[in-house]
Every structure is written in C-alpha cells, then in structure tokens.
Amino acid sequence: MIKVGIVGGSGYTGGELLRLLSLHPGAEAVCITSRKLEGKSVGDVHTHLRAVSSLNFESPSPAEVAERCDIVFTAVPHGTAMDWVPELLDAGAKVVDLSADYRLPLEVFEKTYGMKHRAFREAVFGMPELHPEVRGADFVANPGCYPTAASLSVAPLVGAGFAERVVFDSKSGISGAGIAPSQTSHYPNMAENVIAYKLTTHRHRAEINQELSRLSPGVKANFTPHVVPAVRGIFTTAHLLVKDEFVGEIPDKAGIERIYRDFYKDSPFIRLVPTVPSLAAVRGSNFCDIGFEVDGSGDRIVIVSAIDNLVKGASGQAIQNMNLMMGTAETEGLWFPGGGP
Amino acid sequence: MIKVGIVGGSGYTGGELLRLLSLHPGAEAVCITSRKLEGKSVGDVHTHLRAVSSLNFESPSPAEVAERCDIVFTAVPHGTAMDWVPELLDAGAKVVDLSADYRLPLEVFEKTYGMKHRAFREAVFGMPELHPEVRGADFVANPGCYPTAASLSVAPLVGAGFAERVVFDSKSGISGAGIAPSQTSHYPNMAENVIAYKLTTHRHRAEINQELSRLSPGVKANFTPHVVPAVRGIFTTAHLLVKDEFVGEIPDKAGIERIYRDFYKDSPFIRLVPTVPSLAAVRGSNFCDIGFEVDGSGDRIVIVSAIDNLVKGASGQAIQNMNLMMGTAETEGLWFPGGGP
Amino acid sequence: MIKVGIVGGSGYTGGELLRLLSLHPGAEAVCITSRKLEGKSVGDVHTHLRAVSSLNFESPSPAEVAERCDIVFTAVPHGTAMDWVPELLDAGAKVVDLSADYRLPLEVFEKTYGMKHRAFREAVFGMPELHPEVRGADFVANPGCYPTAASLSVAPLVGAGFAERVVFDSKSGISGAGIAPSQTSHYPNMAENVIAYKLTTHRHRAEINQELSRLSPGVKANFTPHVVPAVRGIFTTAHLLVKDEFVGEIPDKAGIERIYRDFYKDSPFIRLVPTVPSLAAVRGSNFCDIGFEVDGSGDRIVIVSAIDNLVKGASGQAIQNMNLMMGTAETEGLWFPGGGP
Amino acid sequence: MIKVGIVGGSGYTGGELLRLLSLHPGAEAVCITSRKLEGKSVGDVHTHLRAVSSLNFESPSPAEVAERCDIVFTAVPHGTAMDWVPELLDAGAKVVDLSADYRLPLEVFEKTYGMKHRAFREAVFGMPELHPEVRGADFVANPGCYPTAASLSVAPLVGAGFAERVVFDSKSGISGAGIAPSQTSHYPNMAENVIAYKLTTHRHRAEINQELSRLSPGVKANFTPHVVPAVRGIFTTAHLLVKDEFVGEIPDKAGIERIYRDFYKDSPFIRLVPTVPSLAAVRGSNFCDIGFEVDGSGDRIVIVSAIDNLVKGASGQAIQNMNLMMGTAETEGLWFPGGGP
C-alpha cells in the first residue's frame, strides 16, 4: 500500500486528491496538512468526504511528512510549493507538485510569475501522454489545467508538422478559480453568463508554448480563457491553422483519425469520440475526450477536447503520475467513468 | 415629473430602483448616494445601466437629499436606515424605507433584530394589496421579500378564517443575499444545489406573523427558507392546514378561486393562474402569480406563489408604493411583463 | 464474481447501474437489454461509459437473461416490469425491480397506478435501513426516490411516536423525470426556475404512507414535489408537527440526535450532519445526509435530508440491496464519496 | 400609433416581439398569427405576458394581416417566410422578415439552405449600424443572431483593413435553438456543459462572410458556434489575425478605441466597455457591448462582444429596424437597460 501525503489540503485540489485516493486500491492518504485548518476533521471541511475519510488536518514539518509517506502531493499556491519541495525530496519522498513552481525552466518561470525562485530543481513535466519519462521519476511537476487540455487536443497534429498557428479558445468551469468566493464566482455574476479574462496574457500560455514548441519548433500558439456556468470541466476549442504548404494537402477525416489513434495508442485516458466531446461525459473522471472537424476550406482544422479540470487537469493526472512513478499500472484506481448525467 | 432620490445605491436594490425608474414615464432618479462609491458613475458599477443612467454616486447629507427630491428610497441595511429616515421626513420628503427598520412595532423590532431602535417612527406597511392606507401616505416601510410572497399567497384564505396553521416552505434566488460574495453565493456551492438555512428562526417570521394575525388572530405560521440555483425569484409553497371545524367543508376549486378573485379585485399585480406559477413568468416584473390545489383529504390546501424578489419583493413594490403615495396610477411605469424565457 | 443483468438499460437508471457496477470489485454487468438500442454499444449511448464498458445492448428473453445472471435489475417503466419479473424469478435469478410494480400491496398498486396488475408477487420493500429482511431475499422492490428520501428523514421520530402529521416539501433534480426531453426539462423552462407539480396527488404518496404507517399507525403524511435547477438530487424538507400531547415535551437537540444515532446505528449510509445537508455533498454517492432543527414553539421539528436521486434514490440502493441479497458486505462497491464540488 | 402584425407568434421570437412592443410608446401589436394556436390567448402560451397582452392567436390570410397593419414581422421558419412576404408587401404593408429567406443573394441562399427559393425579392440587410439604408426601407431582412454579434464586434477593424483572417468562436444561450424541446436543450444535457456543433459548417457563415467582405474584400472568416448553460445571450470571441504588413504596426489600445468610437458614433446601441463585456449586462436589452485587447505579439487582436440573442440578435433589432423604416427615433421604445443581475 502506497502511503500518500497531501500538503495543502484545504482547497479543491486537496479534496479531490482525497476523493480519488478513496477509490484507489493500492494507495492510501495518511497525512493531510493545512495550517489554518489544523485539528479539524476532513469531513467537516470537505463535507462530501464525511464518513469516508477519517483524517484530521495537521501541520507537520516537511521532514515529518516525508518520513510518514512514500510520495507527497504538494497542493499549495505557486510561490509556496518551493518552500516544501526540496526538503521533501531530500528527505527521500517522491513528490508530485501541483503548483506552477516547477513546470517551467527557471528563467521562464521567473518572468511569467514575476518572482524570484528560491529553490529551483529540475522536474519531469507530468503529462504522461507526452512525457513517458514520468515512469519511475522521483519528482514531477503536474501541469496546469488549461495546458493539459490544450496540449492533448492538438499534439498529434502539431507533431505531424501541419500547424502554422493554433488559436486556443478555452471554456472553463469556475472551480478552476478555487474554493474562495470572489466577484467572478458570485452566483449572480456567473450563472447564465460567460466571462472572458486575460484575453491575451494568461500565464498558462508559457506551458502551452513549451509543449507545442517541443513538438514543432516555431509553431504559434494563442490562448484566450473563458469561464462558463459550470463547476467542473474545461472545453477547449482549438482552431488549428494549416501551414500554407499543406493547405488542401492535409489528410481527410479518416487519415487524421489514424494520426490520433497512432499517437495515443499507449494512452488509455484519451478517448477519440465520433462527434464532439462533452463536459458531462468526462465529469469526475480522468478521461480526455477529443473530436475534430476539417474545414471545407482545407486551411483550418477545429479540434475540441473535454476534460475535468480537477481530475485530468489536476488531481487525477497527479494520481496517474503517482502510479507511473511508483511502478503501478497507469490506470490503477483511475479506471472509472465520469458521473454523467 | 416626480424627483426621486436613492439612499444606498451600491446594492441590488438600488440598481433595480434605477432600472425600474428608467422605465417610468412620470418619475426620474435625480440623486443616488453611496459613501464608498462616491464619484463613480452608475454605469461603471451597475454595468447593465451603462449609457442609460448618467448619474454619479454622491455622498450628500439627508437634508440635501430631501431638498432635491420629492420622494426618497432608503436602500441601506437595517440599523442604518434609522440614521436617515427621520431627517428626510422632517425635511419634507416622502420616504419609502426598504430596510427592516420600520416594518415592525418597536418592541417586536428590537427583539427580532437584537438592537435598540435609535429613531422610531410609525410607518404604513407597504404592501398595497393588504394595506390600502398606502395611498397618500408620507412614510412607508417596504416589506421583506419572503413576507410579501408568503402573505399574498394565503391572505384571502386566512382572511376567510379557514386556516389553523400555514407552513411556508420558501425557495429563493440567491440575489436576496445581496451583492457581496459569500460561501453560500460561491457558484460551486450554489449551482445544482439546494441550501436550507434558519430552518425555524428567520427574522422574516415576525412580518409574516404580523400580517396573518391581522387577517385571522391566532393563526399559526411556520416559515422555512431555502436558496435554490436562481438569481431572482421567490417561489413559496404554502401548506395551509384547515381548522378542524372546516375539514371537508371548505369550498371547491371554483369557490376558492372566487375568494381570491374577490379579495384581489383591485390588485392589478396579482395574477391567478390556472395551473402552477413559475419564476420565469414573473422574472423582472412586479407581478405575483398564484395557483393552488385542494388536497383530496379536505384538510390541506397547497397554495403556490411566484414573485421576483428584487421587484415585487423589493424595488418594484417600492415604486408601486411611490405611485400610490404621490397620487399616480398604481401601475404607472410598472405595467410590463417579465423577461421570460 | 456476481453476474449481473440489467433489463431496460437505455435510461438514466440503467446507465447509473453500469457506472456503479464498474466501481464494484465483486460484481460485473454481463448483460444489458434494450429493444430499441439492440446492437449499439453502451458507450455510444451513455457516453461517459465509453471505454469503461464494452457491453452492447441486447434483446434476449427473460429466460436467457436469467440463465446468464445471478441477479437481475429490472429498470423498465411501471407496467412493463411485470412482464419480466415472474419469468426471471421462476428461472432462478434473484431480482431487484426498480419500477413501481411491486412496491405496494396489490389493491393499493392498482388504485394508485390505475391499471390491472398482470403478474403480482410478494416482494421485500428494498429500503435496508427500515427493512432488514432484505438480507438474503430473492425478490426486492426498490423504492421510489421521493419515498426513500422522505421516509429516511423522519423514520426515527415517527417511530418514536411524536408525529401527528408530516408535511414533506421535496425538491428534486430533473433527472428524476428521465432521459427523454420534455417541456419541463427544456433548459429555458428549467434553468433559474422552480416547478411545482401534482401538489397533492403524486403517486409516491402511497409508498410514503405505507412506510410511515408501519412506524406509527395513523400518522398523517402530506407530500408536495418540486423540481429545481439541478440534474441530480432530492432535498427533502420535512415539517414534522408534534402531537398535542408532546408539544413542549419533545427531547432537545441532543436528545433527538441520540434517537437518530440509535435508530441508524447499523445503517452505514446515513450520515447525521451537524448543520444542514447539501445536495453537493451526496451527489454521485449512496449517502443520505440528515440534519434538523427544533422550532422554538416546541410544536414543530424541521428535518432536512439530501440524497442523490439516481443513487440512494434508485441504482445505488439497488446495489445495496444486491449486496445484502447475495450475502456480500452492505457497503461493498458503494463506499465512496460524492463528487462535490 | 404604428399598427404591428406578427406572423408566427408561437416561438421565442414572437413572444419577445410582444414583450418589446408592450414597452413601446408609439407602436402596438394588433394581430398575432399561429395556425396551431388559433383561438388561444397569448397569456396562456407566453405566460409572462398574461394580463399584459390581451391578444388571441389568429389564422388570417396575408392580405388580411396587411390590411390591419402598417408593418408586419414575419417570425416563421426559413422556407415558410417566402410564402408570406411577397403578398404582404404587395398588399402595401412594410415587412421585417426574421427568417433567413431574404438575408442572402438568391444563389447564396439556395446553396446555403439547400432549397429552391419560391418567391425571391430584394431586401435591405437589417443591421442599422452597417446599413443606413434601413431608414425608410419597405422591406428588411433581419440578420441572424450569430452574424449580428460577429459582424458588429469587428466591423471597425475589418473596415480599417487590418484583418487577414477572423476566427469567431461564439458561445450562445440555448434559446437560440427555439422553443421546442430537444436532446440538446434537455436540462441534464445542457446544464454544467458546453456543446459545440457544426464546427466548420454552420449556415450563418454565409451572412458573416457577406458582411465582412463588404468591409474588406478577401478577408477570411471562420466561425465555430457553441452552446453554453444560459437561456439568452451570445458571447463572441473574435480572434482577429493581423495582415503581415500590419504586424507590429497596428494602433495601440487608445487608437483602436478611437476607431471604434468613430465608426459607431451614430450607433446608440453599441457600448464600448473598458474591460470585457458580459451577457448579464445586456440580457433583455438591445445593446451590443464590445471590449478588446491587443496581443503583445502585435499580430492578433481579441475582440469580445455580448448581445441578447433574442433582442439585438432578433426581435429587438427588428423593432430598431421598424423605427427606422417608419421614421421614428431609432431608440424609441428600446432605450431601457438589461435586467442584470
């Protein structure tokens, strides 16, 4: 039984890790930390976990956590994870960091997040479909929710070299903004509404650029995020503009489907769907559903993907990474359907 | 043209007063106050009013407001209205107070709200369907949203003396909780949920008791409020339990319908509907829709009513009161349908 | 491994049975029937099950189903289950019927549903918390969603003899109305709305009466259902009116809590919560959360309960019944938290 | 008083025309037709109009309608309007057609809609901001909802010649799909979901191309529609890709704002907002709110617009056209704010 620690368990990501671990036959949460909730029971805070989890929040040191756990998830805000990760690693624990602190090269991180990094380490970028080196790794940086959805949607076609530019128009559920109430998450502002923000400047651009450039140096990536009236889920519409040289020369629907099936043949959580995916079909699950259509003009392919932002976009992908790091089957404890309807 | 002032314009009630006044041919908002928004334009705060309202928030004294206005709406929290109302009245303005400060007799107010009243005055209770004395009044206390919906739903039958007890099970949109974000109004907590609160102790009980007791001394009234995933609206389910002496002796459907039509024959905003009312049909309007069904047991009548909590439950009823206080037609500027769908 | 058949798998109940069985370590769906979907894959119909379920819809005879399965869930409409159940039982399969055909005594069924019963059998009423005889039974009638939520909320207090009358005001998600689109389920009609229906005449009254009368003969039960903007869940507000002899004599909060804890001490899926329950906390799970408050008047107790109508109100309770009928642990495959947020 | 007829009043567009006309001081609905609803009162069908409208549905001939009305709105499906429009015009009525039958040149219509046109006439394209020739016209084709939102969002910049291509990613409320229930509009399918459809082939492309090509011949326009959990509204995200020759040479934020203000200086319903627009701020109103941001790369401008699809996207724009056709002030009866929150 893998012993798991969760550092920073007051938010949605921590609660979701506990929910998913409760479904995992080979791993067990043994420790969850939160300074402000110390002593409270998990079930009084994450009320859906009442009776299922008997843990209480604690406030131990990194060394204590590392001693009690085989692997630790750091689910604290960016800028705080760096205060935990090196000590945890040095004390011998494996670590999956769910913050942004270790997803980008040092300089890119510092520029994107506008802060000095106090404790940089190299991490494996934890998107197993694009990074097989997750297997057996000791330290993994879990990707952002938008970059996961965006990168997976187009990786096969970008890898095939067809793309001049991809315009990602992303629609997220509001849980991505966290557990704390805000003007945006105020029900009268969010219900029946669409909210666009950081139209051209969202920080997740850096991760998307990083992943797409690896697959096809020089490809342009644009990214505009929106929030729609949904708690969970990211629906990504990727408008892939074809390089001039390939206009009218790209494969037909069946050909593109082959490219996807081949690219993702060892990726059990990718489901290619015959029409268009839907948030409802992935809600609560670790699947990433993908569909597409080729514009009759031959110069644009529209790819749409759906994930649950808290699962494949965060805690589920973290468990998937854990499985691979610990030598367990990739789908262990994660092979269940979404909750739809 | 009636000159209108709004004291406390930063919240939903203030914004709604401006929206409704923009549709009123005989009245005009000339002043809106907010200490914290002083100098800001209305359209930057209540963005739906951009271009329609050219007012800026101001921070004048009560006397200044009274001088510039024929009638003033005080839309500040309970406990604050009492700092404005006496001065406004003494300076010659008519006043509709939308807070709870003047809805109850002095002792009842102090007990219910747990505070000393610093400036009590007698007010007319501003529910025109039950209080014709609103016409020509100088000072009106606008009722709470729940009491409006509850009282109107059963007044004819309680007045007829059939009721031993009424159990009000009320379902409100979340805008009733105001413009400030909270745990309850956080979209992930409110969407797809039902939240019950103050199961037996909500302060609006006092107003409901007051109105029902006037119609039938000794009738018991119970009240349990809920919030449902809706911005606007209160749907009230009134379970009227028949006095023993009337069990099996109450009128049939047609007879009860006659009682309602007779009771509300001079009340243009009450619509008796053939089946059940719906929040969608009243949203944005000043109507109160009412339907009912008699239990085959003969000992219970279920009456359901729908209002928009921000209109008939607050700002619309305030305008209706203004019309009557100023001698204008009751429906002036309010005779428009809800926005449904 | 228990071999499970599902008769009538095109609707929400059938899909939910498959979802829950995919999480069950000791049972496996081996057959799912639907005449109109014959030959289609489950994943093309219930898209969240894509890749997880490899079944196709079939159209076998009852005898064929019984031969391949240890236990069969009949998830067809009332009036149709009676065409399946006797043959399945006679062929040696255990049966959980999710329709209304076997929940009531013959005469009550025929009167309530306005039809002749063509093939009556005696069944155990499948609410394990109130019917321990489910253990080892061969044929169980799975209760309706509203009656499950209503009965569980008040059984301890009704059983204690305090109740003169209970007014159940129930708020359901729209999935209870099924998978077929209708005027009620049309998004513009349902969103931001509350819909009351069959204010005094819903058929589920009969089941509620049956259960409450067993606990306290002569108790009056009233029931008014509503639909609120939610896919899943039933939130029940039970207004329990105390018998005259007990007014002012009922136990205090701690005392009532003891009554509940004692009554449900062997019922793992009942969670007594310190404040009020929430649909979000039970969504997707088999839990029934219960909270309450005693009216200061001493003559009313308000109890509120939350279940997922598709799980504890249908398919989850069916699996719970299966576990008990087959001699498995009651919580096997069902001991997971809801999906909240 | 302008006498108005509505042909085809059973749907959302017809109901909305009645709602808006009830707010118009200079026009009055005198006739509403529906074959299937003949004899029913408007208030029994569009329940929000109960008491406000006293019309009944009728089934008169085109000539009868034309005789009783100064102007007629045809709100019937495409393919049916062509059976009404020529007779209405020939009988002397002015006509605003809300269907697609007269928005496109004959050949483009027949190709796009896959049908022969049985009665073609030339119409003015009824988007007053781009077509001043609406003023005084006798026959106007009211634009589609998506094309209205899309064209208005980028017209000034496309007109300025900066655009190589515009990728429109549009998010609509479900009321655009009409009043009849469907799988898509089924609440469990729509709530908390995002649905993309016709990723590259929606018919409204033709109108968008028509309008953008008039402003800048050769500009490429892509269009992908989505439905989000909202009843009303279209939120359009326009990714404008700058021509190579202008990369890095486009005006700054203030410059682009000047271009918009100049272009729309005579368009009262266009509101340029300082940040991003919101469906909530335009809901129920005829406004089109627009905001934008320039990508730091200098090769993309993201423009976002919000309209109410049933108002500015249909019935409100129809009234705006009526005002101009009849010589009334453009804003008459339409100068009111949206309902937000």
From TrEMBL, chains A, B, C, D:
Signal sequence, start to end: none
Q: Which SUPFAM superfamilies does the protein's record reference? A: Glyceraldehyde-3-phosphate dehydrogenase-like, C-terminal domain (SSF55347), NAD(P)-binding Rossmann-fold domains (SSF51735)
Q: State any single GO MF term.
A: N-acetyl-gamma-glutamyl-phosphate reductase activity
The protein in question is named N-acetyl-gamma-glutamyl-phosphate reductase
Q: What is the lineage of its organism?
A: Archaea, Methanobacteriati, Methanobacteriota, Stenosarchaea group, Methanomicrobia
Protein task: Catalyzes the NADPH-dependent reduction of N-acetyl-5-glutamyl phosphate to yield N-acetyl-L-glutamate 5-semialdehyde.
Question: Which UniProt keywords are given for this protein, alphabetically ordered?
Answer: Amino-acid biosynthesis, Arginine biosynthesis, Cytoplasm, NADP, Oxidoreductase
Keyword Oxidoreductase annotated = yes
Can you say where in the cell this protein is located? Cytoplasm
Q: Where along the chain is the active site annotated?
A: C145
What SMART domains does its record include? Semialdhyde_dh
Q: Which domain of life is it from?
A: Archaea
Give the chief site where it resides.
cytoplasm
List, alphabetically, the CDD domains matched: AGPR_1_C (cd23934), AGPR_1_N (cd17895)
Q: Which reaction equation describes what this protein catalyses? A: N-acetyl-L-glutamate 5-semialdehyde + phosphate + NADP(+) = N-acetyl-L-glutamyl 5-phosphate + NADPH + H(+)
Record-annotated Semialdehyde dehydrogenase NAD-binding domain positions: 3-138
Supply the gene name: argC
* Cited HAMAP family: ArgC_type1
The pathway is:
Amino-acid biosynthesis; L-arginine biosynthesis; N(2)-acetyl-L-ornithine from L-glutamate: step 3/4
Q: Which organism is it from?
A: Candidatus Methanocrinis natronophilus
* Homology family: Belongs to the NAGSA dehydrogenase family. Type 1 subfamily.
**EC number(s) per UniProt?**
1.2.1.38
